[in-house]
Design brief:
By secondary structure, the chain is an alpha+beta fold. The chain has five helices and nine strands. Helices cover 26% and strands 33% of the residues. Strands 1, 2, 3, 4, 5, 6, 7, 8 and 9 form a nine-stranded antiparallel β-sheet that branches. The radius of gyration is 20 Å and the shape is globular.
Length: 212
């Protein structure tokens, strides 16, 4: 396969301590906005890695749904694999892979369930079809076939026709990630990349350059 031997030059767009904003959440918001402006597909997509109760690491792609100056939020089924993992061990890593921009951001932190009012806000933002799909799926649990899965959805569509409100299931809601470290990665020529790490030390963000 040609892709295994291909060597792409990532250019010479710099990112270092001299231009890094003091607050990593502000820096992240800036990069996210640039990804949106450059029409990156699903710029809020992130790879969330968690630790299962048995110690195994698992990863999957989810969508960032909330961002402010203190943390990041996403939604899921609390009984899914990632939900159970985070309820047992809140440690989480989030990776934003903006390949087209030769950039990535890794966030390290702890995730805790949001309060019910916040979960309700996220649920009410969802299109009805997405609400029905979330309510119909026992996420991560085995099922015999796609046909059986479709039957579960059809049953809910019949139960909540037209403009009937679909209530938020108790097992569905948000997680809020409180970060304690960020790493911003900017691709450079010859694989001599820029890596800038922010780490929360005594309530202050400490910035360090890492070797590529």
């Amino acid at each position: 396969m040609d892709s295994l031997s291909r060597h792409t030059d990532y250019g010479n767009v710099p990112f270092d301590e001299s231009i890094a904003l003091p607050d990593p959440l502000a820096q992240f918001a800036q990069w996210l906005k640039q990804a949106e402006d450059e029409d990156v597909f699903e710029p809020n997509a992130m790879v969330a890695s968690t630790i299962d109760p048995d110690g195994a690491v698992s990863s999957r792609t989810v969508l960032l749904k909330g961002l402010d100056d203190t943390g990041l939020e996403f939604v899921t089924n609390y009984t899914s694999r990632k939900g159970k993992a985070l309820l047992h061990n809140p440690s989480i890593s989030l990776l934003f892979p903006w390949y087209g921009l030769k950039r990535q951001v890794i966030v390290y932190g702890e995730a805790k369930p949001t309060v019910a009012e916040v979960s309700d806000l996220y649920w009410n933002r969802r299109p009805k079809g997405a609400q029905l799909a979330s309510a119909a799926s026992d996420q991560s649990a085995p099922i015999a076939s796609r046909e059986e899965l479709d039957k579960q959805l059809a049953a809910l569509e019949e139960k909540f026709p037209g403009d009937t409100v679909v209530p938020r299931p108790e097992h569905w809601g948000g997680f809020r990630v409180m970060p304690h470290a960020f790493e911003f990665w900017q691709g450079r020529s010859m694989r001599f990349h820029d890596r800038v790490r922010y780490e929360l030390v005594d309530s202050h963000w400490q910035i360090t350059r890492l070797q590529p």
